[in-house]
DNA sequence: CTTGACCCTGTAGTTGCTACAGGGAGCATA
DNA sequence: TATGCTCCCTGTAGCAACTACAGGGTCAAG
């Protein structure tokens, strides 16, 4: 059993974030000490680690919730898990493509700029309408 | 002169968003009709177009605010504009790199999965701690 | 004269936290 | 025993950048 601070350190999570996860129902309310302190067992540690790892991989809290409930059910619904992961992957691909397009536009804009000395700024011009 | 709805259509912006921009001081409060409707002139249209184009390029509202004030000043501070644009560019590069790393991790995870039929799910396993 | 599309203000919701404020618990030291 | 100090508690408000109401007013067409 460990305190919320210890759990936070173990999972690289801020204390407030842990309480937030509890509040939104992602983590079950843990046991309390006589002094009303939360105490967490290994299962809670595993669950929070799972959440954090999923978050690091960019899953939304809703997606994490879905993944957790699938593992909780133990129904081994691999198809659903796979779909969530693939959907997420597709979204990341989209974001990458968007950002690359953006980078291209931006770099064109920046390159057309004077570089800091000439008086009519092509960046502002590029952003302005009717040019 | 045009109504807020017309301005919204012309700039592909929701009416609520235009009012929001006004509330946070990005757009000046426009003139009103007798019936208290906002009316916008061409300058407002140009300004909102500038804002939207900047937003589309991923600039934050704070960055947009800075760009706008630079153009308002007319001081032709090209150096500052260039810096804002380059900073933004660097941030986008970072995001792209992050997402590509993420994609790699995710694809490794997904490929190791059964594909929807075998009962022990490697995705869940990959997300779980102590594996 | 009524219907419908538009507009108004003001407030609350979204995502995923983060940051207080104002207090209590628990342990070490003087 | 008193005093610090660190940790913990609850509850609320803030961030970005909108979006979505609720509950009303305005205006033109039929």
Automatic annotation (TrEMBL), chains A, B:
One of its GO terms (molecular function) is DNA binding. Pfam families: MerR, MerR-DNA-bind. InterPro entries: DNA-bd_dom_put_sf, MerR-type_HTH_dom, MerR_fam, Tscrpt_reg_MerR_DNA-bd. Transmembrane segments: none annotated. It comes from the Bacteria. Keywords: DNA-binding, Plasmid, Transcription, Transcription regulation. CDD domains: HTH_CadR-PbrR-like. Residues 1-70 form the HTH merR-type domain. The keyword DNA-binding applies. Gene3D superfamilies: 1.10.1660.10. This is MerR family transcriptional regulator. It comes from Acetobacter aceti.
């Amino acid at each position: 059993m460990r305190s919320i601070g210890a759990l936070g350190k173990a999972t690289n999570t801020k204390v407030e974030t842990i309480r937030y996860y509890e509040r939104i129902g992602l983590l079950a309310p843990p046991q309390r000490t006589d002094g009303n302190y939360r105490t967490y067992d290994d299962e809670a540690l595993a669950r929070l680690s799972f959440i954090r790892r999923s978050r690091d991989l960019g899953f939304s809290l809703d997606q994490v919730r879905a993944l957790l409930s699938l593992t909780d059910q133990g129904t081994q619904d691999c198809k659903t898990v796979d779909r969530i992961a693939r959907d997420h992957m597709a979204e990341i691909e989209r974001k990458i493509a968007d950002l690359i397009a953006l980078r291209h536009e931006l770099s064109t804009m920046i390159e057309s700029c004077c570089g800091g000395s000439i008086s009519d700024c092509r960046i502002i011009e590029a952003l302005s309408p009717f040019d």
